[in-house]
Task: inverse folding
């Protein structure tokens, strides 16, 4: 009996103890070996060979250009004067130690500056602490998103090993909110440019202006607004077109906290927890701002690390029994005020919204009307922007503020359109036109853009990108514009071996000109436009 108990003791306590001692005494060797075993279990090389992301358009570029003059195909309109900036992922090294995914890689900014009818192109890496550590090492050091989404037990093991490597000093330790590459978007607020990602702090870029020309090196720092921000921020701030205030929602996976934040003139004017959910929402990626309210989605894609050991092999699992709902708070929301929930009758997930506004009913009450593409299911490996991604439909919802009911939940377009844009000067009030990217033609990125009238519920015009793919048709109003669609659509269009900045007339949906770039650009999406006045404030 004593021998049996000794055997049990060695089995259950000896092996873990030996591993603990090995990690304590030889952390680099022990954890390196464990990571190689987990890497092998993930079948990274085989997975990447067959991955939908193993296509030329997703491949990184490693040549950094500075002020390369561009030759437009036709005259650039005189009223286009400013800088187009697009953020996106770009793997730093020819070889990667992670499973391919759209979210893997360092951030890279692609900049087209237009001045006096001439244009130039510059691209730089976003030099976050993670980028700098990996650049010094000459290889991937930290975990990739692709290892987590669908990586199962081996992916979970790599997560634990990555944490232990930081714990024992094998690799530099990064705070969880400062460990991202901030690759999702880029936006301007109160004389600063921020690279954004919803899992961490905003990254404030260092910027210089020389004779009206914007200079970015990619260097910068995470901004916590005098240590008042203690949670993830957002990738999609809703920007009041009059005041410039930023309104944000974010979620923290570990605690299940959902945060609401407001930036005013560079200061964090409001930051509070508005709800706690377990399991947490996997994403609160986008939301609505109306005249008096903020509306955010509570979606059927949930985050639960235990699910990595289940059949989905991912912490992000779509629950078809979890009905999608809308949370509504007032714009002057105070900490502790409850969220009003409006539950729909279907499960759903969404990435991006168009616009929403308040409407008065005949009975004197108020409705909130919302427009967005919605997915009625979503895979746990998060196959965004590739042919494995399911079909979204363009939808309209109507929320009755008096009854608390969703009185309308209706499909407007069955065709797969996503990543919408509109004239954000009309944010939160009735806007007729949405510009929707067509992902159905090839199921990967966008092959064209549809101008759609959400009030008349009618298709207006379509522009085909031909051999190119698009990421986001950004609306830029004409100076002193006279109508909602008086402006341009700016779109960085990409192919396997080339790229160009396309400029369309948003009213007629016809091409004005395009500016071929000196090299191809990896597939990506979110962009912003800075006019000359905004650029001047960055000096």
Result:
């Amino acid at each position: 009996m004593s021998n049996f108990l000794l055997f049990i003791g060695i089995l259950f306590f000896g092996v873990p103890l030996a591993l603990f001692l090995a990690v304590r005494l030889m952390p680099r060797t022990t954890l390196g070996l464990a990571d190689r075993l987990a890497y092998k279990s993930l079948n990274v090389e085989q997975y990447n060979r067959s991955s939908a992301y193993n296509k030329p358009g997703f491949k990184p570029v490693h040549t950094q250009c500075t002020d390369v003059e561009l030759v437009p195909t036709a005259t650039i309109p005189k009223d286009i004067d400013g800088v187009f900036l697009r953020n996106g992922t770009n793997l730093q090294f020819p070889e990667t130690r992670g499973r391919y995914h759209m979210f893997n890689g360092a951030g890279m900014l692609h900049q087209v500056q237009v001045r006096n009818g001439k244009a130039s192109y510059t691209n730089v890496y976003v030099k976050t602490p993670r980028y700098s550590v990996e650049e010094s090492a000459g290889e991937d050091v930290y975990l990739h998103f692709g290892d987590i989404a669908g990586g199962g037990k081996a992916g979970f093991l790599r997560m634990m090993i990555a944490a232990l490597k930081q714990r024992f000093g094998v690799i530099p330790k990064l705070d969880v909110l400062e460990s991202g590459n901030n690759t999702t978007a880029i936006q301007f607020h109160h004389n600063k440019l921020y690279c954004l990602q919803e899992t961490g702090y905003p990254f404030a870029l260092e910027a210089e202006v020389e004779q009206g020309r914007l200079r970015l090196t990619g260097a910068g720092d995470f901004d916590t607004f005098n240590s008042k921000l203690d949670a993830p921020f957002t990738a999609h701030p809703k920007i009041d077109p009059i005041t410039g205030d930023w309104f944000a929602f974010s979620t923290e996976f570990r605690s299940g906290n959902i945060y609401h934040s407001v930036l005013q003139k560079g200061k964090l004017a409001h930051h509070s927890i508005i709800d706690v959910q377990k399991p947490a929402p996997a994403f609160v990626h986008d939301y609505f701002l109306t005249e008096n309210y903020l509306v955010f989605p509570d979606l059927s894609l949930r985050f639960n690390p235990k699910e990595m050991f289940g059949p989905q092999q991912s912490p992000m699992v779509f629950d078809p029994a979890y009905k999608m709902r809308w949370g509504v708070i007032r714009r002057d929301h105070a900490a502790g005020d409850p969220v009003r929930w409006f539950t729909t009758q279907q499960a759903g997930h969404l990435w991006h919204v168009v616009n929403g506004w308040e409407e008065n009913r005949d009975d004197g009450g108020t409705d909130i009307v919302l427009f967005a593409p919605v997915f009625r299911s979503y895979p746990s490996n998060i196959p965004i922007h590739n042919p494995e991604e399911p079909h979204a439909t363009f939808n309209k919802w109507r929320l009755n503020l008096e009854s608390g009911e969703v009185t309308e939940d209706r499909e407007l377009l069955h065709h797969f359109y996503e990543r919408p844009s509109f004239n954000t000067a009309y944010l939160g009030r009735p806007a007729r036109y949405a510009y929707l990217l067509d992902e159905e033609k090839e199921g990967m990125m966008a092959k064209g853009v549809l101008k759609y009238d959400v009030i008349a519920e009618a298709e207006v015009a379509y522009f085909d990108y031909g051999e190119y793919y698009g990421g986001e048709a950004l609306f830029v109003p004409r100076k002193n514009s006279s109508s909602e669609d008086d402006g341009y659509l700016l779109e960085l269009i990409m192919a396997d071996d080339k790229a160009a900045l396309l400029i369309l007339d948003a009213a007629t949906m016809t091409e004005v000109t395009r500016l071929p770039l000196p090299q191809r650009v990896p597939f990506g999406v979110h962009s912003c436009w800075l006019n000359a006045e905004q650029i001047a404030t960055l000096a």
